[in-house]
Design goal:
The chain is an alpha/beta fold. It has helices at 4-18, 20-25, 92-107, 149-165, 167-172, and strands spanning 46-56, 63-74, 77-83, 122-129, 136-142, 175-180. It starts with a helix and ends with a strand.
Length: 182
């Protein structure tokens, strides 16, 4: 993982490069240095994970097909998911919820969305944490475009059953949103 100091240097270089043409037109333009955050880790209050079938390990050496996975998209290959176990960008509470949802997915029968065939149900998991309120919103993004009515009903009943009976989710999640993205 890149050090925080190197991340700041990279961001500075990207910004300076983006303003190169404008600086020729407006020579008095001054690009100030990036201000470092006092909090280097666990600073994000919102994050989006993607469900998928095509998995790449973090070392980028092994690709395989999985029935269900939850993580980040591999850079440059949107159909592949990088399976992660912990994210240094979000709080411990959000990481615990992510791990719980990943394990819940592994044991469920809910089909994940396939970026190649555009079929499946579970697309994204968005977690948003109110830093001051400690409230957690979960947005489950789903697609039911290619499902027949009986399958839709069965999937929704399974999903609702988990959400209504799961004590951890009831204690941890303040707000649950389900978004259709067909």
């Amino acid at each position: 993982m890149m050090s925080y100091a190197n991340q700041l240097n990279l961001k500075q270089a990207i910004i300076e490069d983006a303003f190169t043409k404008i600086k020729r037109l407006v020579p008095e333009l001054v690009i100030l240095p990036i201000l470092a955050s006092p909090q280097e880790k666990n600073y994000r209050n919102k994050i989006e994970f993607s469900f998928g079938k095509y998995v790449v390990k973090q070392d980028d050496k092994l690709n395989f097909l999985s029935d269900r996975s939850l993580g980040f998209h591999k850079q440059g290959e949107f159909s592949k998911i990088v399976n992660i176990h912990e994210c240094g960008l979000i709080s411990e509470k959000a990481n615990q919820l992510y791990a719980y949802m990943r394990n819940l997915l592994q044991s469920s029968e809910l089909p994940v969305y396939d970026q190649k065939t555009h079929k499946g149900f579970l697309r994204h998991l968005v977690i948003r944490e109110g830093i001051n309120t400690q409230q957690i919103l979960v947005n489950l993004v789903v697609s039911d475009q290619f499902l027949v009515a009986e399958d839709k009903k069965a999937l929704w009943e399974t999903l609702l059953h988990h959400l209504q009976t799961d004590e951890y989710l009831k204690q941890t999640v303040t707000t649950l949103v389900v978004t259709y993205n067909n």
